[in-house]
Amino acid sequence: xxxxxxxxxxxxxxxxxxxxxxxxxxxxxxxxxxxxxxxxxxxxxxxxxxxxxxxxxxxxxxxxxxxxxxxxxxxxxxxxxxxxxxxxxxxxxxxxxxxxxxxxxxxxxxxxxxxxxxxxxxxxxxxxxxxxxxxxxxxxxxxxxxxxxxxxxxxxxxxxxxxxxxxxxxxxxxxxxxxxxxxxxxxxxxxx
Amino acid sequence: xxxxxxxxxxxxxxxxxxxxxxxxxxxxxxxxxxxxxxxxxxxxxxxxxxxxxxxxxxxxxxxxxxxxxxxxxxxxxxxxxxxxxxxxxxxxxxxxxxxxxxxxxxxxxxxxxxxxxxxxxxxxxxxxxxxxxxxxxxxxxxxxxxxxxxxxxxxxxxxxxxxxxxxxxxxxxxxxxxxx
Lengths: 192, 180
Description:
The complex is a heterodimer of chains A (192) and B (180).
Chain A: H1 16-28, H2 45-60, H3 64-75, H4 90-117, H5 121-130, H6 136-145, H7 159-162, H8 169-191
Helix pairs in contact in A: 1-2, 5-8, 6-8
Chain B: H1 2-25, H2 44-47, E1 50-51, E2 69-74, H3 79-93, E3 99-104, H4 108-118, E4 124-128, H5 132-136, E5 144-148, E6 154-159, H6 164-179
Parallel strand pairs in B: 2-3, 3-4
Antiparallel strand pairs in B: 1-4, 2-5, 5-6
């Protein structure tokens, strides 16, 4: 396999300011042969040619914008790492902001739902009455299963309940029902 | 209602993301859409190039005006060009349209050698020793093939070796339509 003939173009001399512009410009231009390298990093043949072209255009006095337009006319928007703002790239530019706004909207909705679902004070006090006879979990277990649920449950599940024998299971079930009603009615009022 | 939103939102998001990822699967990042499509072909830059002196030279660059023609960018250093070359030979034998070769940064002696070995499908071969013409045409890798219509507009571009399928399914119908 033969080799492509090397670049024989005469070198372009640039002053300090022009070289600075060149470096900045290079970093914004994509090498199309090795796509994830900038034009500055690339050693591919085409990159050598393109670098020479950019250099001579700077020497000729073209502006950065003119050089970029020249490149885009030939190689398309893809040649620039930072695409220009235009109709076909609007989604690209607006996309992150739109998703951010969308995310914020969803977050706000979720926050609002949370505050609706927060247990209102009246319900909380009813629920705290229950804790006289034990924690909510113990009470609900006793209340929903059966009023005459056996007290001989092994330690670790119902031991708090058994510490307050003066409240009967039937009473506790009633309290629980009231608490539920309160919670539900509050939710309805706020929800509607 | 809100339950539907709660269930539908993640599902909807999933569908959107999945769609984009799926589309990405069969997209080739090497295939960069040419900004030249439906625009004027950079004709003048070809006029400034020298011919490769191979015997089958029948055309001049100016003769191409008002014709439907194919520009094929190649080099003897390019392995993909060798792959598509028999197909170009076959297409040239059909005499459907003139095929112009642009020898991109290729030493003339090697171009000549290559064509005498593999056959010459080109109505003319232009030598782009400096790679300037290739840049004007937005070439970034050989082989590349352009179809130009009677109004000197670029109508089709293919990057990479042509295949029989591309020629039969895309190129030939377009050529026939443009020649009408």
